[in-house]
Specification:
Blueprint: H1 2-7, H2 16-25, E1 32-36, H3 37-50, E2 58-66, E3 69-77, H4 90-103, E4 109-116, H5 125-137, E5 142-146, H6 148-152, E6 158-163, H7 165-173, H8 178-183, E7 192-195, E8 197-200, H9 203-215, H10 218-223, H11 230-284, H12 295-298, H13 307-345
Parallel strand pairs: 1-3, 1-8, 4-5
Antiparallel strand pairs: 2-3, 2-4, 5-6, 6-7
Helix pairs in contact: 11-13
């Protein structure tokens, strides 16, 4: 699934107009990001219809740049299909959708994409590659992460992210070696930057939400104060432990790499000593010394383990820790609220 979304490819063709308009209006200045409530409802509806369990749904964000604001005014989903659908062309599908929206005079310029997440599991290489392709083609583009599990707990969870300028430069060079990442001062804390967003509802959406609130039963509202959340907390802890295990494996690989480097240095030193002793013996016999050899060709340095994967795992661990912290704080708030309601009723 990641390969499909990774490309969405999106930023491949048909994005020139969006890029030109955005740069002309926004340039390098920092933009405010405004999401229309209609877009949020469509994203939620998309997940409810096609998202199951840890299945990820994704789609395209459409809008335009107005003065110092990036307005996301519409979106459309990527259709779910299997690997057997070899004839399906995603780029063609996106172009046809954009053409149809343009014909009915609806904003059709790409400004990013959205993705659902399962317990906050979105810090992946697939997301990094997808956002780089979008952000490289459309400078102002963002990725919107929707968390349905947090939303089901009574708090809408929507966060927008962009790649930091440092990480963009590293991705452009396509050099993810430990030396390059260290030189660019890349750590998991400065790989992604969260973008503040504002959700603007039309009067019709406000009326609809008001009607839905009136129809909801009092018992349904009290369910939000339930402390029966061990399943969610347990799942978050399990995912956290899985990532910690992956980090431990990466540490073992790195330690193995260091041992191999040290072993090779010893072998180089022994080889040079043998050559030096042999040249001394040849010189004493009046023979010419041995020709110089490129020692790096004889001893090829071991390849260091990929550093980017470790940074992504560390970033995902940090996300899980934040989720657990927020989850515990939310439960504490529910406990105080339930106690306040009980005191009020008494």
């Amino acid at each position: 699934m990641a390969s499909r979304k990774e490309g969405s490819g999106g930023a491949g063709g048909g994005f020139g107009a969006a890029k030109g308009k955005a740069k002309a209006a926004g340039g390098k200045q920092k933009l405010q990001h405004k999401f229309f409530g209609f877009v949020v409802l469509k994203i939620i509806k998309h997940y409810q219809e096609e998202g199951q369990g840890n299945e990820v749904v994704q789609g395209v964000l459409l809008g335009l740049v107005v003065d110092d604001r990036l307005e996301i005014t519409n979106c459309f989903p990527f259709p779910q299909h299997t690997e057997d659908d070899a004839d399906f062309d995603e780029v063609q599908y996106q172009m046809e959708m954009m053409r149809s929206l343009r014909h009915v005079n609806i904003d059709h310029l790409h400004v990013g994409w959205y993705q659902s997440t399962y317990y906050g599991s979105f810090v992946t290489r697939a997301l990094l590659d997808s956002q780089f392709s979008y952000q490289h083609a459309i400078e102002e583009s963002v990725v919107l992460i929707y968390d349905p599990i947090k939303t089901a707990q009574g708090s809408l969870s929507l966060k927008a992210y962009r790649l930091t300028p440092k990480l963009m430069e590293v991705c452009k060079e396509k050099d993810f070696s430990p030396e390059a990442l260290k030189k660019a001062n890349i750590a998991y804390e400065n790989m992604f930057e969260e973008v503040p967003i504002v959700i603007k509802n039309s009067y019709l959406i406000n009326v609809m939400l008001w009607e839905l609130e009136k129809k909801s039963a009092v018992a349904d509202r009290h369910e939000l104060l339930s402390l029966a959340s061990s399943n969610h907390l347990g799942k978050s802890l399990q995912l956290l432990m899985d990532r910690v295990d992956e980090m431990s494996q990466d540490i073992v690989k790195y330690n193995t790499y260091l041992r191999n480097v040290s072993k090779q240095q010893q072998q180089k030193h022994q080889y040079q000593q043998r050559r030096q002793q042999e040249n001394i013996q040849r010189q004493s016999r009046g023979e010419a010394p041995l020709p110089e050899e490129d020692i790096n060709k004889l001893f090829k340095p071991p390849q260091p383990p990929p550093r980017m994967e470790s940074l992504l795992i560390a970033g995902q661990i940090n996300t899980y820790c934040q989720n657990i912290k927020e989850f515990n704080a939310q439960n504490l708030g529910k406990l105080f609220m339930a106690q306040a309601l009980q005191d009020y009723n008494n």
